Amino acid sequence: MPFYEYQCQACGHRLEAMQKMSDAPLSECPACHKSALQKLISAGSFTSKAASIDNAPACASGGCGAGCMAGLLVWLPLGVTILVIKMLVELMDRTLLLLPARYQPDQLLGMHIPGLGVIVAVTVVLGTGVIVANLFGRKLVQLWESALGRIPLVRSIYSAVKQIAETMFSSNGKSFRKVLLVEYPRKGLWTLAFQTGSELGEAQRKTGREVISVFVPTTPNPTSGFLLLVPREDVVELEMSVDDGLKMIISMGLVVPKPTDQPVPKVVTEEG
Residue 216 pLDDT more than 90? Predict the structure, then answer.
């Protein structure tokens, strides 16, 4: 139905009313209650307004919705990427607070430079790597570790973290190098896992079978999960890389890696 505009000739009050074309015009003003209303709108005006109202649902359900979705697909990944990088930079900048107050860059320079903590951290790591690569540096590390080994609580934490770091970041390590399929939490249900070890010693002796350790991460947060000791013959190795496996877990299965030329999985075999 079209909209009509009225104005009271007595008090000047204006209003709009939606009426059928066959309805009688309004006469009583709701403000002063006098019969002095006069219709103002023309036929061309209410036709234009009615046409815009009729076209609004079509825009919302058609082109406008598709345009919003396309915009989200562009800005959402970009926004999340910027947010994560910003959080990492701010976290690295907080490491500068470990320095004495008078030696902190903000105090020396008189201003805050975002990202300076990242530069300092990378420089320290690279410098440490260069130093410990020679004989003198290795001697210093041995003395440092010997001193830490005499402190009870620090010794346990330091040795555990060092062993994990050497296992994960060593070029010869086998941890987190393979994506596996294991039947978990019951037979017939498969889940992604990562191989973390194959030489389990006592576990293999007590079970009488060749077992490997696998890490089953949770989704969408892969930093938590479960450690399972699974017989080698019950584990299926996948062709996908560790990065693809993590993407699939974090995306809750929405991001699936492209199949390789060898779609048939193979059972994990002992590496030489």
Answer: yes
Strands 179-183, 190-197: parallel, antiparallel or unpaired by DSSP?
antiparallel
Distances (CA, A) of 165 to 92, 168, 171, 215: 20, 5, 11, 16
Measured CA to CA, the distance from residue 27 to residue 17 in angstroms comes to 12
The mean predicted confidence, pLDDT, of the chain is: 80
pTM exceeding 0.90: no
Place of tokens 């910027």: 82
Extract the tokens encoding 200.
């389990």
Give the pLDDT mean for 43-47: 44
Residue 17 in contact with residue 6, Cβ under 8 Å? yes
Mean pLDDT of 80-84: 90
| Average pLDDT estimate for 163-192 | 81
Long-range contacts of 10-18 (CB under 8 A, 24+ apart): 10/34, 10/36, 11/36, 14/40
Other CB atoms within a 10 A radius of the CB of residue 216 amount to 19
**What's the mean pLDDT in 179-185?**
93
Strands, E assignment, the chain: 3-8, 14-18, 37-39, 179-183, 190-197, 211-217, 225-231, 236-237, 266-267
Please state, in angstroms and rounded to a whole number, the distance separating the CA atoms of residues 209 and 230. Answer: 9
